[in-house]
């Protein structure tokens, strides 16, 4: 998710105090804003449309997991309870282990992967699977402590979670397959390039590398100063909550963003989805990770060249699938288009959708992911 059709980036703390006290309509009108031609967007791209009979739209009733749990992540003196789900089919024994990681956003949640997980684990083809979906620390149903979140912190979590001897993925080294959306995919690729994790393969579903503000306004020293001011204000005890409620934590804003650019088809945005995401924004500490993501602190790289290099460094080391979307926002689409035919990309496909294809068109995405598993992960009996 992004913030709005236009975003106020003040040049002083006093401006923030005034902005937090005015109505949303005033906040989204001149002279307070840097106007943007279309709503801020932050991930996805495309190229060749994958064959699909009829796109399978979002399923409103999210399936229940086989098991849920909390894993403790220790970082910088903090013990953070991280929420995860396990999904298994009838034949769970000797199954390929898949880790599904949600797209990082204001309202990131394991819910976006549930239908894909249920579909894949229920298949009884030559590759049988079990799936674990994990919420990022600071997002979803995980604890949300006031950490100084950045890409290194998120990568640290991912590496610890995958390699933990007491975690749900224990003993999966060399066999683990990672499905990640948006920034999650890019962070996983960066960790794999450092040999901090050793997955068998990675599927990057609409991978991105730039947060909502940097991809629109760039990273000049002046803009970085403004991002820092916005980030600090969103983290502040009183005015931060006020600003967060205006920009993110209200149902009209969430519905508007989903209908305008998170989903490709506005008719797929249901009241239950909006309510679910709104509830996430009301959890204690909800604003800390969005403040970092919005202002580019969670960006794994800072240029397209570095983005492509992450894939290129894994050439010949593991199969990599890129799943793009036909309705991706313009700037993110340009970054993903650069991946078609790029070094290290084993297969590039396009599916219907915009920013969350795994949630909006889960069965179509599941079909592409399972075909990739059949092609590159061998037979499991």
Describe the protein in words.
- This protein has 381 residues and is α/β, with parallel strands linked by helices.
- Helix content is 37%, strand content 16%.
- The chain has 15 helices and ten strands.
- It has helices at 13-20, 24-27, 114-122, 151-163, 183-193, 212-217, 221-235, 239-247, 251-262, 271-281, 288-294, 304-312, 330-337, 357-360, 362-376; strands spanning 6-7, 34-35, 67-75, 78-88, 96-101, 129-134, 177-182, 201-207, 320-325, 347-351.
- The strands form two sheets. The chain has an eight-stranded mixed sheet, with helices on both faces. Strands 1-2 form a two-stranded antiparallel ribbon.
- Helix 4 (151-163) packs across helix 5 (183-193) and helix 7 (221-235) packs antiparallel against helix 11 (288-294).
- The longest helix is centred in the middle third of the chain and has 15 residues, at 221-235.
- The chain is globular, with a radius of gyration of 20 Å.
- It starts with 5 loop residues before the first strand and ends in a 5-residue tail after the last helix.
- The relative contact order is 0.19.
